[in-house]
Design a protein that fits this description.
The chain contains six helices and seven strands. By secondary structure, it is α/β, with parallel strands linked by helices.
Length: 241
Amino acid sequence: MFDVSSILSVMPDRKAPRICFVCAGNICRSPMAEFVAVNVALDHGMSAQISSAGTGSWHIGQDADPRAHEALSRKGYSSHRHSASKFEPNKSRDLDLIVALDNENYDFLRRLSSKRSWKAELVMLRYFDPMLSGLHWEPSHEFDVPDPYLGDSSSFDESLAMIERSIISLFEKLASRLSQLIISATLLIGHYPKPESTEMDQLEPFGVTLSRFFGTDLGLTEGLWLKSGFRVPNMTYSLCD
């Protein structure tokens, strides 16, 4: 599977990855991915700016397909009205990670990136699918999330299952990698937080450490536990316009 360390390397001064999911029309697969990612980011206590777009302009301004909303609801994911948009090349300047839902859209984005100097990392979503972990992660149709648009509700359920597995895996890897960076920063600066305590006087030295490492004020009002057992500030997601 894809090594997320290369993703994190392009956002060293940010505590929140900026991620855009891209399919063809931005009414089926990519909005489902956006809504799943928002929910998974919250579950992991991670800050993330999450958006979606399409490579085509057929559905600009439209809501996600009703079958997409229904599939999300069946899996317990919250969703709201969506407004489809087209991926614009200059949007890459405001992103860290661009995630294509299939090989065709990946190729389209890769051609765009070859004409410009993109700093954002371009990947296919199913690079992170644990069910494909044995495959070499070169772009191919083996990593496609099939477009369910011409199918029925079961087609949406099948595509959503692939999206869900891949996004959960992606955020688990991001959370694990970020926690490793936090531990490294803590040891580097010389502070040793005490995970068993939730008192503010125990949190402040750690917060100072993180602020120095990430170059930003992280705030210390709320917190959460990463798998490492270290407590870091609670952060919420925000949606890109």
